[in-house]
Amino acid sequence: MSIFKKLANKISRLFKKKNNISLGFYGPPNAGKTSLANKICEDWLGESMGDVSAIPHETRHVMFKEKVEIEHNNKKLIFKLVDTPGITTKIDYEDFIRYGLKKKEAQKRAKEATEGIIESIKWIEDMQAVVVVLDASKNPYSQVNITIIGNLAARKIPVLIVANKIDLRKADLKKVEAAFPEYKVVGISARTGKNVDKFYEALFKLVK
Amino acid sequence: MVKKIKGLTLEFMPYSEIRDLDSSKRIKKILDVVLNNRIIVLQGRLKVDEETRLIEDTMAMIGHVKNFKGIELAVISSGNGSIPIFQKLTQGIAKALVGDTASMTIIGPASIVKEIKKNPKKIELMLKK
């Protein structure tokens, strides 16, 4: 990125009104980014944002929801929600065949998924705040998680970590907290709605 | 230095080999080795923006290079292993921005390396059958 573009972005961030905050949802595939974005949209707009699936890489394009007004403790903020495809270092179409997709369908999904990851990474610099969504039942120490958060830290973009799927038996919120002690970690279940109020509280603190 | 174990090749890449290269050439050099089905043990680590660039370039190659399914990547940081990753990250953000020779990076083709598991005292490469 050129020095001028970096400077323009910084100035834009400084002067952008707090009422149109670009909030990105980043993380590995199948962590529940779209489920959380859907939960927020359903809570405040009465409609969902995107489809979810047990098959990884259901979200293969960056999706937006403009002007989502969220109210918490008598304060209102307006967000532009940016749901991104899950980031990973590998994609094998044969993995999708194991979920029952036909070969051509699996290959198409793999191609779109690779393009989606590139798109996700390109959007990072436009975010004013990011929610990194992790699956609380999986090992948080993966290099992809570290790379994503390291990149956000280097750009000084505020980060909130959501440990999703705390309703699962294998979920280990303490492990996620131990991995990222410098960050606020909120354990939620986007599926059941558990602790979503705590998420809103943390989100308002993040962007205040 | 090349060490062969039952047909598996681990290639040690000293930091001096990439120190004077720009980001594009660094990543190209790494991916060239991985595309030859070798696992790289790199002295040091890439800058944070190079790590994301490596992911982007890897994604761009999947589908264009036959049988290439991506990479497995792990960085082992220097210092006390009991320090949580993000304490290391924040302590060493300057290092991460310019490259950190005291760390070690392992990068392998996903067609060979299924998973890299790490804990403070050991690193395990789970290989595909």
Produce a short descriptive summary.
Chain A is α/β, with parallel strands linked by helices and 208 residues long. Chain A is built from seven helices and six strands.
Task: Tell me what you see in this structure.
By secondary structure, chain A is of the alpha/beta class. Chain A has one domain: 3-Layer(aba) Sandwich (Rossmann fold). Chain A is 39% helix and 20% strand. Chain A has a six-stranded mixed sheet, sandwiched between helices. Chain B has helices at residues 16-19, 23-35, 48-61, 85-91, 93-98; strands spanning 2-5, 8-13, 38-43, 71-76, 104-109, 113-119, 122-127. In chain B, strand 6 (113-119) and strand 7 (122-127) form a beta hairpin. The longest helix of chain B has 14 residues, at 48-61. In chain B, helix 2 (23-35) crosses helix 3 (48-61). Chain B has a single domain (2-127), classed as Methyltransferase, Cobalt-precorrin-4 Transmethylase, Domain 2, CATH 3.30.950. The chains are: A alpha/beta (208), B alpha+beta (129). The interface between A and B is medium-sized, with 32 and 31 residues.
Task: Give the overall silhouette of chain B.
Answer: globular
In whole angstroms, how far apart are the ends of chain A? 28 Å
Query: Helical segment tally of chain B?
Result: 5
Give the spatial strand order of the biggest sheet of chain B. 1-2-3-5-4
H and E order of chain A: HEHEEHHEHEHEH
Structural class of chain A: alpha/beta
Largest sheet of chain A: 6 strands, mixed
Low-confidence segments of chain B, given as residue ranges, are none
Radius of gyration of chain A: 17 Å
How many β strands of chain A by DSSP? Answer: 6
N-to-C SSE series of chain B?
Answer: EEHHEHEHHEEE
Helical residue percent of chain A?
A: 25-40%
User: How many DSSP H or I helices of chain A?
Assistant: 7
Rg of chain B, please?
14 Å
- Helical content of chain B stands at 25-40%
